[in-house]
User: Fold this.
Amino acid sequence: MSTILIKGGTVVTAESERRADVLITGEKIAAVGPDLTAPDGARILDAGGAYVLPGGIDPHTHMELPFMGTKASEDFFTGTSAAAAGGTTSIIDFVIPGPGQSLLDAHATWMGWAEKAACDYSFHVAVTWWSEQVSHEMGVLAEQHGINSFKHFMAYKGAIMCDDEVLINSFMRARELGAICTLHCENGDLVYRLQEEVFNKGITGPEGHPASRPPWVEGEAANRGIRIAEAIGTPVYLVHNSCIQSLEAITRARLEGQIVFGEVLAQHLVIDDSVYRDPDWRTAAHYVMSPPFRPPEHQPALWRGLQSGMLQTTATDHCCFCTPQKAMGREDFRKIPNGTGGVEDRMSVMWEHGVRTGRISPSEFVALTSTNAARIFNIYPQKGAIEPGADADIVIWDPNLTRTISVETHHQNVDFNIFEGMECTGNAAVTISRGMVVWENGELKTERGRGRAIHRPCWAPYWETQRKRNALREPTPVAR
Ligand code: URP
Ligand code: ZN
Ligand code: ZN
Assistant:
C-alpha cells in the first residue's frame, strides 16, 4: 500500500483554511494535522506556498454522448484525464436513454463506456418518457445501482424532451425513492417555434442559436419546473443556469423555503453572446451550446447568485464536438451539435475570475467546485472533503502557477478551446486521485480503467433535513 505525505501546505475546505500536513495511506486520507511524520517509504510531496484542496467534482459532463446525429468526441478516459490535469477528480455524467428505451439497458451501456475512466465517476439517469417500466427501473437504479438523481430535459423537442406529464410522474416517483430531480430548463416548444421563425427569416448561421433561445425561454421553464417540484414536494437541482430569469426563479423559491439548487457553468460566468457574431463560422459554431451564452449583464448576476448561496455548484456541461461535427450545421444552425468543453479548465477559470478578483474566498472556491456538489448528490465526505477516512482525491493548488489556456496545450480531445488565450494564475500543480498521483510537473499519469463508479445513496441528509422541516409548511396541492 503506498503512502504519501503532503507537507507544508494550507489545507482549504469549504469551512476553513489552516496550515496542515496530509497523510495518505492507500486510497484514503489517514491523517490531517500539523507536523505529521512520514512513515518509512512514504513519498513526500512539498506543498510549501501552495493550497491543498479537495479534488474538484464536476457534476455535469457528457463523455462520448450520442447526440444530434453524432457522438461527443471526448471519451471517459480522455475526459477524466483532462479533468485531472485541471484538478478535477470526479465527474457526474449522464445516462440518457432514448424515448422507449429501458433505463437499465441504457445505464448498463454507459457503465460499459465508463470502464475506461481514469478517475471516479457517477451518473444522473435521464427520464425521457414514462411508463410503469420506467417507474420500476427508477427504483432498481436507486436501490441497486447507487443512482440518487434523475435528469429531465425540458428542451430538445422531438428527441429527449419531457412534457409536464412526464415531469409530474417522474417527480412523484423520485420523491417516493428519496432521489433528487435535475432539470435542463428551456421551454422546448417555444424553442422549436422560435427556431423555425428565425430560420425562415433567412438566419441560418450560429447567430440564430441565441436568437431562438432567449433568456425568458429559460426563465419560463425554470419557474415551471420549480413549481411542479413544489406541488409534488420534491427537491430539484437546475443545471446550467445562464441568466437572470432562472436565477430569479430559484431565488424566489429558496426564499419561500423550497429545496431548490442551482448550478452555473464556468463558461457562462465569463463568456458572453458576442461570440456568436464572430465572422468566422467555425469559431461561432464552437460556442453553440444550450442554453446559449448571454448578453454580458447576466454575468454579474450569476456571480452574485454564487456569492449569496442562491447557486451552489459550478460545472462545465463538458460535451465536445470537433469542427467536422459542428459543420453538420453549416447550412442550418439547428443542426450544429450543441455542446462545449471545459472540464480541464473549470477550476483555473473559477480561481482566476473568482478568487483572484476577490469575488469568492478560497473556501468558497472549494464549496463551489467540490463540496457542495458532494453534499447535494450525497457523496460527502467520501468526496469533497479533506479529513481522515475520505477518499484521497486531492489537489496541490499553486496560486502562482500561470497557464494560458489553449487548444495547442490542453488535454481535452477536441480541436477548439472556448477559453482560448485566457491567462489563469492559480493551477493544479499535483492532482491525486484515490491515492494515486495522476498529474504532476505538467504531465499526466492517469491509468485507463482506474476510475470507479461512485455509489450515491438516496435520502441525502443534506437536503432531507430541509425537506422534513419544509413538510411543516402549509400543504401544497398535489399528492401530499
Ligand atoms: O449544449 C449542451 N448543453 N449540450 C449537452 C446537452 C445538454 O443540454 O446538457
Ligand atoms: Zn442541458
Ligand atoms: Zn448537459
